[in-house]
Design goal:
By secondary structure, this protein is of the alpha/beta class. It folds into 3 domains: 1-54, no CATH class; 57-188, 3-Layer(aba) Sandwich (Rossmann fold); 207-373, 3-Layer(aba) Sandwich (Rossmann fold), CATH 3.40.50.720. The chain is 49% helix and 16% strand. It contains 18 helices and 12 strands. Strands 9-8-7-6-10-11-12 form a 7-stranded mixed β-sheet, with helices on both faces. Strands 1-2-4-3-5 form a 5-stranded mixed β-sheet, with helices on both faces. α10 runs antiparallel to α11 (275-286) and α13 (329-338) runs parallel beside α14. The two termini are 26 Å apart. Bound molecules: glutamic acid.
Length: 449
């Protein structure tokens, strides 16, 4: 049996209780076949894939915190230090009641590849808690973040593991965590966290980095396909930080953002969002109500309760910016029968199920993979690490230029990797191959560790 199949069989058995992890490992290893088959004996004898599918470390801890009424709550926290092959562990912290160890493991595995694609020296990690930030007061959030950091601080450091934000964890939460870290270690070590507020050592442009980076990637892809953003219609899911950055840049470049969504449904804005409406997304997020209906109430646009925009809203490109497995086979079939969508630009992590992707690809829709498209966030985080290490302050121009260069290079490198391994035009395979080449090479160079 092929080496990839042997390893997949073991993962399916060992990690059967972590379906998202099994899903992503299967998808990635499958697409690495052309790389592995070039020298299967070498990869097998070094047990490179067995090591790749096992995180270096998993840390778990208890997070007790007190609410405004004096009631004590206990949440669970985890830190996955997945791979340090090409740099210190790097990745976001997710706060959501849906977080499980399995979710974080899948995200950390993915992060390892995404970080490799940036071309910067950052390894892969992820952290989080099953804490629900929705409806919490600012003080409750602060007490929770302080307790989370108390459980975590032993295991992180500027050259060891540098977490950032992710779903449910933005600049405010990172600021509280940084304050607590400083108290605990009695040193101003700002490089320990990225995505910090700017006055606390954060880098300018980190808040828009994931969204802007995704749009820079799109510009390059669309140009390759003879299209341009101006005048095109984009339907987004989500309305959080990432969707906001995407919408802001698209509107600036003359694109029409015709849909947004939330856990309660979607809104349809047939003429496209205005810049003011994009700004309102920040207020919606700050309210922590997590309801996109607020947008419909304010601007008098159509709201569809408990539905997703996929295949229901006419758009040239669908841009999922929310959470994993948002587009399954059912939505993919609705998209293809609706017929206007030509591009699926994945911005959220793993927003499309593998069978959904198959349906879209068969219908001739170009799928741009999230691990390339959303790498701008972590790339600017790595710039923040450099800024903190040199005890300097970077300008927005410098950050934006570097971000645009990185996104362009990512596009070129995945197109080239797809071609090199006989997968021309397959951006998903290209991204996995380009990312894995570097990680596997570094693992081989560092011996059995
Ligand atoms: N959570 C973001 C991601 O998934 C950012 C991670 C970081 O900046 O370290 O890439």
């Amino acid at each position: 049996m092929a080496y990839v199949d042997d390893v997949l069989e073991v993962v399916r058995k060992k990690d059967a209780d972590e379906p998202e992890f099994v899903q992503t490992v299967t998808e990635i290893l499958d697409s690495l076949r052309p790389l592995i088959e070039k020298d299967e004996e070498k990869y097998r004898s070094h047990a490179l894939l067995e090591r790749l599918v096992e995180p270096e470390k998993i840390i778990g801890f208890r997070i007790p915190w007190e609410d405004d009424e004096g009631k004590i709550h206990v949440n669970r926290g985890w830190k996955i230090q997945y791979s340090s092959a090409i740099g210190p562990y790097k990745g976001g912290i997710r706060f959501s009641p849906e977080v499980t160890l399995g979710t974080l493991k899948f995200l950390a595995f993915e992060q390892t590849f995404k970080n490799s694609l940036t071309g910067l020296p950052i390894g892969g990690g992820k952290g989080g808690s099953d804490f629900d930030p929705q409806g919490k007061s600012d003080r409750e959030l602060m007490r929770f973040c302080q307790s989370f950091m108390t459980g975590l601080y032993h295991y992180i450091g500027a050259n060891m593991d540098c977490p950032a934000g992710d779903l449910g964890c933005g600049g405010t939460e990172i600021g509280y965590m940084f304050g607590q870290y400083k108290r605990l270690i009695n040193t101003y070590e700002s490089g320990v966290l990225s995505g910090k507020p700017v006055a606390s050592g954060g880098i300018v442009g980190r808040d828009t980095a994931t969204g802007y980076g995704a749009v820079y990637f799109m510009e390059k892809l669309l140009a390759d396909k003879g299209c341009k953003i101006e005048g095109m219609k984009f339907a987004l899911s989500g309305f959080g930080n990432v969707a906001w950055g995407v919408a802001k840049k698209l509107v600036e470049l003359g694109g029409k953002v015709v849909a947004l969504s939330g856990p309660d449904g979607y809104v349809h804005i047939p003429d496209g969002m205005t810049a003011d409406q994009v700004d309102y997304m920040l207020e919606m997020r700050a309210s922590r109500r997590n309801k996109v209906k607020d947008f419909a109430d304010k601007y008098g646009v159509y709201f569809a309760a408990n539905e997703k925009p996929w295949g229901r809203v006419k758009a040239d490109a669908y841009v999922p910016c929310a959470t994993q497995n948002d587009i399954s086979m059912k939505e993919a079939m609705r998209i293809t029968s609706e017929g206007t969508c030509k591009f699926l630009i994945e911005v959220a992590n793993m927003p499309t199920t593998p069978d959904g992707i198959e349906v879209l690809k068969k219908a001739g829709i170009t799928v741009a993979p999230y691990k390339a498209v959303n790498a701008g966030g972590v790339a600017v985080s790595a710039m923040e690490m450099s800024q903190n290490a040199e005890k300097g302050v970077w300008t927005l121009e410098k950050v934006d230029k570097k971000l645009r260069d990185i996104m362009t290079n990512i596009y070129d490198s995945i197109v080239a990797a797809a071609e090199k391994y006989g997968k021309s035009g397959d951006l998903i395979a290209g991204a996995n191959l380009a990312a894995a080449e570097k990680v596997l090479k570094a693992m081989e160079e560092q011996g059995v560790c």
